[in-house]
What does this fold into?
Amino acid sequence: MTSKNLRSIAGSIIFDVPTKTHQSALRIIQKTSFNKFLAQYGHLERAAMLKMWMKHLFVSSSASKELNNMKLFLRNSLLENAPETPFDGPLKLEVIYSFNWLKGHSSKDKEQGSMYKATKPDVDNLVKVFMDALEGAKFITNDSRFAVMNLQKQYANWSGIKYKITKLNNI
It folds into this structure.
């Protein structure tokens, strides 16, 4: 479901939000063991040795199948309602990530309708995946355009994402 006007676009995507996120799919890998490294570069000054060590590290994306499927699902879901031209300039992003109630939640909790979720996954890692999907679906020109963000995680009777993107006036 999506609603559009010239200044904002809002919608929701109903699905089970995975617990694996962008951050959990990244790993720093050593190209060589530290002992081998010291044997080769141990004679260098501290600053030079640190610089060489940084060259022996690299970030590996070992994205899970679940994460890749979520990115593809989000992008495809967003494509159905993409604006004619991507939003550009300073933007505000509002996102609510909703997770199904756990078995351990009481009836009293559930009667409230929703309750903040203060456990993993981290909301900043969830939003990275969503912003990539927004850019891939041509909702926005670049995710760096978000000047303001309001992010929330909750338990509720539904699972998915509610979002709103708003064009901001200059301050």
Observations:
- The mean pLDDT is 83.
- Strands lie at 2-4, 8-14, 26-30, 57-61, 91-100, 114-116, 146-156, 160-167.
- The chain has five helices and eight strands.
- The longest helix spans residues 65-79.
